[in-house]
Write a structure and sequence with these properties.
Blueprint: H1 2-33, E1 80-82, E2 93-97, H2 99-111, E3 115-119, E4 122-126, E5 134-138, E6 143-147, E7 153-157, E8 173-178, E9 191-194, E10 205-207, E11 219-225, H3 228-234, H4 243-246, E12 249-260, E13 265-268, E14 283-286, E15 292-293, E16 296-304, H5 323-327, E17 331-336, E18 338-348, E19 363-368, E20 371-376, E21 379-381, E22 393-398, E23 404-406, E24 409-413, E25 415-420, E26 428-430, E27 433-437, E28 439-440, E29 447-448, E30 453-458, E31 461-462, E32 465-467, E33 470-472, E34 476-478, E35 492-493, E36 496-502, E37 516-520, E38 527-532, E39 537-539, E40 556-558, H6 571-580
């Protein structure tokens, strides 16, 4: 018996040993399976030592978002302007138009230096007057437009003709946030100082000819002209002679954080995102006005009644009398020349009676020349029109910089997230979802569009980050585009795709594309680091003419299909931790 007991005990001990050993082996294998990018080591990462024109570089994207992520977005308590109370008396039943009442409350809050314009639970009908470009306009700092929640407060646009043919720009919108026109990145400077050294790295320290014009906390623009030499060097000679159409300058809006007269340098808050050369007149400019700041849109849903049209051809936006012409390039929300502001908890919705299932006429949220905005927990979907010319985009980031898109969803659209405009840079998509791209509702509820991705769209967006995002029935694309006028051309350089997942729910592809989650053929270098899911392949087929010969250098790819074991799982969160340490606000 003792021998039997001993044998049993020995077997149990041996079994326990093997279990323990198995755990150790399993853990060892798991640890061995994790990996880091060669471009982002745990020690020794120093992006400022790299040169844009010749080196591979993963830049520091931790500055994106409201106030560079250094403080949480505030929850403003008041003063509160209840739009349903006197003297405004907006109708929350959806029976009467509430545009004038809500605008009056917005104006009152703006004139008082800021406040919360509160829309209690209900439906508020708004409309765009024939002589206006928006239903609601916010152009003073500190104004917060707040609802009672996405399932309780609804803003409903009732205007179906959203084009003004006699105006230079046909794009009208339901809500517009607008900073001063004099804050445009191409605005003539009230004073400017040449740089004294070519800026060829992601630097924050800028040598200048004279430091006297600059003070702490000033907002400046560091920029250089788009010259024919620059176009030729970039590999896009087709852009020659079209600098004004492309934006005149490659420009970065920054804040001065240090002035050193002895060294003749100005230090700015965020690294530059691409080279600026003395040859192209690189300078630091003070503009006549600064962007509007501290504006918030939060906690409501917004939608539009559908256009009654039944024909939605891809290029019908050019034909007067066609439904697409009436709503071309319109949007639910446009934010122009704003900084340190936010949109959170805003969804689109289908208006009762919309048989096509449309939530909006064309576009969802459009940012233009804005910086350090945080867009979080928003969802936009189902445009009625998704034709050519800039229609059916859910989130458009146009010539904007250092903005953070956090946990947003784009669904059922021509393009989910789209980067546009010369110098659109430093923006971060983190934990976002692009689902079912390639569609609009049309008249039937499901209309194919020629777009089918979240993409980098036109004119050299640079140095952005797509991080820990999902392509569900979609993919991400940073691909050379030959068409349009001026040519879209090389759409980005030094952009990073980090830990991207793809589902197999996709139909609008050829068999060769069916497992591709990212297509990247950027100018100079682009980077794809870690993919996972049923669709995890990366296509780096080179269509870029490039400054380095036919096709340019092939984009850098690591960890295809191995994103689940990539360290860190999120580049953006890890970089925030590195820069801000324990003081970093926790992402909500």
């Amino acid at each position: 018996m003792r021998r039997l007991a001993f044998l049993v005990m020995s077997l149990r001990t041996l079994a326990a040993f093997f279990v323990f050993a198995g755990l150790l082996i399993s853990r060892s294998v798991a640890l061995d399976a994790t990996w880091r990018s060669e471009l982002y080591p745990e020690q020794g990462w120093n992006p400022e030592a790299a040169r844009f024109d010749r080196d591979k570089v993963v830049q520091d994207f931790s500055y994106a978002g409201y106030r560079r992520g250094e403080v949480p977005i505030p929850r403003i308590a008041g003063p509160v302007y209840d739009v349903t109370s006197a003297p405004y008396l907006a109708d929350p039943s959806g029976e009467r138009d509430a545009t004038a009442a809500i605008q009056a409350a917005i104006n009152a809050a703006g004139e008082a230096g800021g406040g919360v314009v509160f829309l209690p639970a209900g439906t508020y009908r708004v409309s765009v007057a024939s002589d206006a470009n928006e239903a609601l306009l916010i152009e003073r700092p500190g104004v917060i437009l707040r609802g009672a929640g996405t399932e309780r407060t609804f803003l409903l646009n009732t205007t179906t003709v959203l084009r003004t043919p006699d105006r230079p720009s046909p794009s009208r919108t339901v809500i517009r946030v607008r900073g001063p026109f004099e804050a445009k990145l191409s605005a003539p400077a009230r004073t400017k100082t040449p740089v004294t050294t070519d800026l060829v790295s992601p630097t924050r320290v800028i040598p200048v000819a004279d430091t006297k014009p600059f003070q702490l906390n000033q907002i400046v623009v560091v920029r250089a002209a788009l010259t024919d030499e620059w176009f030729r060097e970039t590999g896009e000679p087709r852009w020659m002679g079209q600098a004004s159409a492309l934006g005149t300058y490659l420009a970065f809006r920054r804040t001065v954080v240090a002035v050193d007269p002895a060294a003749s340098t100005v230090t700015v808050d965020v690294p530059l995102r691409y080279a600026l050369l003395r040859r192209d007149g690189a300078h630091v400019a003070l503009l006549p006005a600064d962007p509007v700041a501290e504006i918030g849109l939060e906690d409501f849903s917004i939608g539009s009644i559908e256009h009654p049209g039944t024909e939605w051809g891809n290029r019908d936006f050019m034909q007067p009398g066609m439904p697409a012409y009436d709503i071309h390039a319109s949007s639910l929300i446009q934010i122009e020349r704003a900084r340190d502001s936010w949109v959170r908890g805003v969804h689109s919705f289908q208006a009762p009676g919309n048989r096509s299932t449309a939530h909006m006429p064309s576009n969802g949220l459009v940012l233009r020349e804005s910086s350090h905005l945080t867009i979080e927990d928003c969802r936009f979907e189902r445009p009625q029109y998704g034709g050519a010319g800039g229609n059916g985009y859910m989130f458009t980031i146009e010539r904007s910089q250092e903005c953070l898109f956090l946990r947003n969803e784009a669904r059922f659209s021509r393009h989910g997230f789209s980067f546009k405009g010369m110098g659109c840079s430093g923006n971060v998509l983190h934990a976002c979802v692009d689902a079912e791209t390639g569609y609009a509702t049309g008249a039937s509820g499901r209309m194919d569009t020629r777009g089918r991705t979240s993409d980098f769209h036109m004119w050299f967006s640079i140095s952005n980050l797509v991080d820990s995002c999902l392509a569900d029935g979609s993919r991400y694309e940073a691909a050379y585009r030959a068409g349009e006028n001026p040519p879209h051309g090389i759409v980005t350089a030094h952009t990073v795709f980090w830990n991207i997942s793809g589902t197999d729910r996709i139909t609008k592809v050829t068999p060769a594309e069916s497992h591709v989650v990212i297509r990247s053929d950027q100018g100079r270098y682009g980077y794809v680091i870690g993919t996972s899911g049923p669709r995890s392949l990366v296509d780096t087929t080179q269509g870029v003419p490039g400054p380095d010969g036919p096709g340019g250098p092939v984009d850098h790819v690591e960890g295809e299909g191995k994103g689940q074991t990539l360290l860190p799982a999120s580049l953006f969160i890890d970089q925030r931790r590195r820069r801000l340490g324990p003081s970093a606000p926790v992402l909500p």
